[in-house]
Amino acid sequence: MKNIAVMGIMLAAGAALFGQSRSFDALFPHLDREKRRQAFSPEGLIISAKTKTFQLLPASGAGIDLAGPVSRNNPAYLVEALMVIPADGRAVGFLEIYNALRNIRGLKGRLYHSARRNDEVPLFEDATRIQSEGKTAPVPDPPPAKAAPQRETVYIRLKDVNFGNSYYRAEVSAVQNGLLYSLSNFRALSYLFIPVIKEGKFMAQLYFEPLAEGVLVYSIAGTDVSDFIASQIHIPSAIQKRLEVIIQWVAEGIRSPR
């Protein structure tokens, strides 16, 4: 399809299964007991703040660097997350993770708790693939793949409860031990028709790796916003809600594949 750029060789469907996997404690040896417990909970561990300091960094030899690309974007607000999706006796590899990421329509209608409305409301009222940055007509999600590509680019339109129609570029790439999902806005995000997050100023890096204990989801999201939006919306909370919804979307797709 024209809206997808696929490069490189295809990964075998059986790659990176649990029998060949690293352990969570080897990747994050410095977490205290409570943070580790949260990482293995259904909600996962999420930390959000107005800061430039990272708190959930993996071991130096783990070969995982999400902080570097986010830092280069010079964000004022950061959200970090860790979650392990239990294996439940299944062998889950790159293909299962990749197919969960392909189901863009699955983001539609996912609920979050709105303190202002005191209710559960959809964060994304609509979610669809689009052809490209220049052609925003919706296209259907493809059927489940039989192999995961080395690299792929997908363009997405989300109808956001706060930001209206929002346009993102998602890049999926196979890295040394897992899959990296990089999400950034290729158009400015607006609030009440006022541009508040410039093009490319929102970035989320999500890393997935099959571990001995399940599937690791490790992510960092960062953004910089105008003073106006910071006075209207609690930005750390806003980023956290979006990252939570994205993580739960992928987790559900891994637990219950199409």
| Structural class based on helices, strands and sheet pairing | alpha+beta
Number of helices: 6
Question: What is the residue-averaged pLDDT?
Answer: 89
Q: Which shape, going by the Cα principal axes?
A: globular
Which stretches are low in confidence, meaning pLDDT under 50 for 5 or more residues running?
1-19
Q: What's the end-to-end separation, in Å?
A: 21 Å
From N to C, what is the helix and strand string?
EHHEHEHEEEEEEEEEEEHH
- Sheet bearing the most strands, described? 10 strands, antiparallel
Percent range for helical residues?
A: 10-25%
The quaternary structure here is single chain
What share of residues are in beta strands? 35-45%
User: Care to count the β-strands?
Assistant: 14
What is the radius of gyration? Answer: 18 Å
Would you kindly provide a written description of the structure presented here, covering whatever features stand out?
By secondary structure, the chain is of the alpha+beta class. It has six helices and 14 strands. Strands 1, 2, 3, 6, 7, 8, 9, 10, 13 and 14 form a ten-stranded antiparallel sheet that branches. It has a two-stranded antiparallel sheet with strand order 4-5. A two-stranded antiparallel ribbon has the order 11-12. α4 crosses α6. The longest helix has 21 residues, at 235-255. The radius of gyration is 18 Å and the shape is globular. The two termini are 21 Å apart. Mean pLDDT is 89; it is low at 1-19.
